[in-house]
Amino acid sequence: MANDTTITVIGNLTDDPELRYTRAGDAVCKIRVASTPRYFDKATGEYRDGDPLYLAGSAWRDFAERIAESLHRGDRVVVAGMLRQRPYVTADGDKRTSWEMDISDVGASMRFAAVSVSRARAKPEPEPEPEPEPETRGRAPRAKDRRAG
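Structure (tokenized):
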């Protein structure tokens, strides 16, 4: 979409990916990423952690299954997608907003780890059902029946 807010977040998974299936059978995977900025404190001469950003995101179908199979809690990831604002009302009647990502891509960060990549294979198409043989009812097949087979 032309006016979507696309972002990239680099951080660590706070939990194992959560894989579920819709009633229609589509896979959906939810992840939560914590991204903590670091800055150099000149007064102490040390690096310090800033306030972390926690951002949830979801992916769908085969992509969702590959995320759930490949990633685990604590893995450092690079996540790209569209930022979505979801308003809701609490049980007390307070209006709130949550921010989530519709994930378009995920990669394992190679900054502090080595990664081995294997290409995902397409799911095989179901075999078509064979067409039934034409009925001959005790007689020899007609010429047009022999040509069809």
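Strands lie at 6-13, 18-21, 27-35, 38-41, 46-49, 53-60, 76-89, 95-108. The chain has a mean pLDDT of 87.
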